[in-house]
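Support request, priority: normal
Reporter: lab tech (M.K.)
Component: structure prediction queue

Hi team, I submitted a job for DNA primase from Stappia albiluteola yesterday, and the status page still shows it as pending. I've pasted the exact input below so you can check whether something in the sequence is tripping the parser. The sequence length should be 395 residues. Please let me know if I need to resubmit or if it's stuck on your end.
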Amino acid sequence: MTRFADSEIARVKDGPISDAIGRYVDWDRAKSVPSKGDFWACCPFHGEKTPSFHCDDGKGIYKCFGCGATGDHIRFVQEYLGKSFAEAVEYLGGSPDAQTDPETEARLAAERERKRREQDAAAERYREDERRKAYAIWREGRPLPGTEAEAYLAARRLAPVMDGLRLRYVPSQPYWHQKKVSGEKKPKPYVLYSGPALLSPMTRPDGTFAGVHITWFDPDRPGKKLALGDPETGEILPAKKIRGSKRQAAERLIMPAAFDRLVIGEGRETVLSAARAEKAKRPDRFVRTAFWASIDLQHMGGNATETVAHPTLKTKLGRPARVPGPVPDMSDEAAIPLPEFVREVVTLGDGDSDRFTAEQVHARAAARWAMTGRTIVAAWAPEGKDFNDLAMEEA
Ligand SMILES: [Zn+2]
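Reply from support: The job had stalled in the queue. We restarted it manually and it finished. Here are the results:
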């Protein structure tokens, strides 16, 4: 085995890692900040359409947030060109014998392309399988009136249930969780709990089914979501889960046959509260309005071109936390598209989400959906409250 002096290894790692890697990937110009040595690309190790492969010249490392590939100059050459450590050092050091001949490079490129296509196909099969499972859950759902789901909504001042509301109820939905098994690498999935849940369908712009959003509620405490503890850590687990894909999907809760106005918010109950208030106070406007939930906060704005420093939140190391910024990445094909005929948009902001983070999302949504002749306004609940709290106070 060839031994290298530390100085030789240091020398091959001396240049910017983005130069070494940039020969093999196309940096994403919108996301990269070359002046800071900050580069993003679609990952060369797994198939993807939006860049999650990051390269940091300052630290001299790359890292993929999609597949976890990570390393330095040498590691990249080893992994990407299929070389040993010694060969990679010689390759980077410019030793003429170590350069790969065009034939080998072409063969390796073809092999990588084949692997990427295989991974893409496997991912697509997985997504379709998940979608079918999600649809099977939704199909089991039944109408809300007369059920404990209606009682849950009533306790939150969200009943009687509106006509045409796209929500269903299941009496016993399994809650899957994972536990570590000694001697095994992968945690083992098991059913931690089964109980009543609300279901709402996530649909794509063409109306096709994309997934289901499941919310478990506590049958013994009307109006309360399920507070299920993790048996291992004791921490409270999320009462909501989504199955299926968020890609271009939203929970289209109320869809009039014809509408030119859209009210959209992060959470289902926020949106329902707004719908009820509007139906009572402005029925003329209510009838021409669709009410959607965006599944989660960030999905409302889609991807950002860059992150921004949070004015008060800090990381564990005391640096400002970074959150997705106000400028939408218009190449994000997974973001929620709006039909062109929508002339008015109201984005609902909960006072109980972090305000700065939410403002960036609303700014992105407004910029993404901007169109001649369309107005977009943000409506904010008072600090510390959401629209559901307001409905409960007004009731
Ligand atoms: Zn990757």
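The chain is about 30% helix and 25% strand. The first helix runs from residue 6 to 12. Let us know if anything else looks off. Ticket resolved.
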